[in-house]
Design brief:
The chain has 489 residues and is α/β, with parallel strands linked by helices. The strands form four sheets. The chain has an eight-stranded mixed beta sheet, with helices on both faces. Strands 1-6-5-2-4-3 form a six-stranded mixed beta sheet, with helices on both faces. Bound molecules: ligand BES, manganese (II) ion and zinc ion (ZN). The site of manganese (II) ion has 4 residues, from loops.
Length: 489
């Protein structure tokens, strides 16, 4: 999709979009259009009960004498109260309303003074993504027609410059969505690692460790999860050095289970296809690296993803097995379906041991329990750092990738203590997301740390303002903003 910024004149082809504030009458270009159309816009509003509420849209076919296809009125409510995240959603709404309309071009006339045009453009861009590579045919009227959107603003040049950066971030989001949507017969630990190597074209240093190298390092927790799979488990390390070489890096770690059957503790069949996106944490981290490298962020970043496939087979790990993690701590596997923490614990230990980062942020589709707690709106945030938590919460409100802080407490530790080994990989029936986080905390080696449980936010079963049903790309914009606002010089 082509997005550009034009001067404050009237669109001449396709659809003209006007933003309408609640209970306000037309002014400027919209008023002129209304009078050119003999009051058809005002009439459509009254007869169609359109009052300019946020999210309302009204489509009016243009009369033959006007060159345009149609006029679209988009309600924005009280514009003075709209946050950046809301403006982004307005952009997504505009795209969704026009995608299949028949128009190839649209022009949005932005006359509201403090409208955040760049965010609207970003929203339109984000909403335009589709994962359609496996559709060899599409029903009539399903294939989007819209190819370009122009935002008519006072200062097109400034907006264009600001937008370029958002475009880079959007391409990171799209990479994440591509990875998350890819089925597990195509995306496995080996092909995923190859896919990541493509980031080297942007200047990201990519290193891939195989099973022999991980065995030498003692990463038996991670290796145990992948031992039932026909594919080789991989640990991929990405480095982006955008700051001085002596500056301590920040780090991100992702769970990359390319398919989670549950292993010998097999999951029920219904809904199991969803477990193709159990690599969402890794997918987000990889998309983030694409975004940061794409916009040449002035920061040093290390990102590590643990890529495994959790399968039942004669070589698979069994309940009751005991593994020694890279940290030296031993773990009794009581449920092979609690595999994410086993992948992360070695990836985290490796990351802090080798790179001595300022902090670690891990992302994982770790527990179904976080969906019970928070649904699909917020990701669960667990951290021992109030500063990192606040920074992430702010970045979440700004971008709309929202996070909600959950508790950690030593009293939960007894739920994962174990007689056979140092710990077991499941807790009791309650607080499933917290005991999982409490498990990970044992592998931070006191490096400041945040765990984001994104099981509820990686995928959506319905269309959202910024994404169609499918992979959401949640977390890329959140972490890009978090880095930009706090760790770039
Ligand atoms: N990948 C799942 C968590 C998950 C569930 C993600 C639903 C997205 C949607 C994870 O590996 C898992 O199976 N967790 C178990 C843990 C339990 C066995 C302690 C769970 O949540 O049921
Ligand atoms: Mn599992
Ligand atoms: Zn899993």
């Amino acid at each position: 999709m082509q997005i550009n910024f034009a001067s404050m004149d009237m669109p001449t082809e396709g659809t003209a979009v006007f933003l309408v504030e609640k209970d306000k009458s037309f002014s400027g270009a919209a008023a002129k259009m209304d009078s050119d159309m003999d009051g058809a816009l005002s009439k459509a509003m009254t007869v169609g009960r359109f009052s300019g509420n946020m999210g309302q849209v009204k489509e009016i076919a243009a009369p033959a004498k006007v060159a345009l296809d149609r006029i679209l009125l988009v309600g924005v409510g009280d514009a003075t109260k709209l946050t950046e995240a809301k403006w982004t959603e307005v952009g997504g709404t505009i795209f969704a309303a026009l995608a299949n309309s028949g128009s190839k071009a649209a022009g949005v006339v932005v006359e509201i003074e403090d409208a955040d045009t760049v965010s609207m453009a970003e929203g339109a861009m984000l909403r335009s993504y589709r994962f359609d590579k496996y559709r060899t045919k599409e029903p009539d009227g399903k294939k989007p027609t819209l190819q370009s959107v122009a935002f008519h603003v006072v200062n097109a040049q400034t907006a264009q410059v600001q937008f370029e950066r958002r475009e880079k971030v959007a391409s990171g989001v799209f990479f994440t969505r591509d990875l998350v949507s890819e089925p597990a017969n195509i995306l496995n630990p080996e092909s995923f690692a190859d896919e990541i190597k493509g980031l080297s074209a942007l200047g990201v240093d990519v290193e891939v460790l195989g099973e022999a190298e991980m065995a030498k390092l003692g990463m038996n927790a991670l290796l145990g999860v992948g031992q039932g799979s026909a594919f080789e488990s991989k640990l991929v390390i990405m480095r982006w050095n955008g700051a001085q070489s002596d500056e301590q890096p920040i780090s991100f770690i992702g769970k990359g289970v390319t398919f989670d059957t549950g292993g010998i503790s097999l999951k029920p069949g219904a809904g199991m296809e969803q477990m193709k996106w159990d690599m969402g944490g890794a997918g987000t981290v990889v998309g983030l690296m694409k975004a940061l490298a794409g916009r040449k962020a002035k920061v040093n970043v290390v990102a590590t993803v643990g890529l495994v496939e959790n399968m039942p087979s004669s070589t698979a790990q069994r309940p009751g097995d005991v593994v020694t993690s890279m940290s030296g701590q031993t773990i009794e596997i009581l449920n092979t379906d609690a595999e994410g923490r086993l992948v992360l614990c070695d990836a985290m230990w490796y990351t802090q041991d080798r790179f001595k980062p300022k902090f670690m942020i891990d992302l994982a589709t770790l527990t179904g329990a976080i969906i019970t707690s928070l649904g699909h709106e917020h990701a669960g945030l667990f951290s021992d750092s109030d500063d990192l938590s606040a920074q992430l919460s702010d970045a979440g409100s700004a971008t709309g990738d929202k996070v909600w802080r959950m508790p950690l407490h030593e009293n939960y530790d007894k739920l994962i203590d174990c007689a056979t080994a140092d710990m077991k990989n499941i807790g009791g029936p309650g607080a499933g997301s917290i005991t999982a986080a409490q498990f990970l905390k044992r592998f931070t080696n006191d490096v400041p740390w945040v765990h984001l449980d994104i099981a509820g936010t990686v995928w959506s079963d319905k269309d959202l303002p910024l994404s169609e049903k499918g992979g959401t790309g949640f977390g890329v914009r959140l972490l890009d903003r978090f880095v930009a606002d706090n760790y770039e010089n």
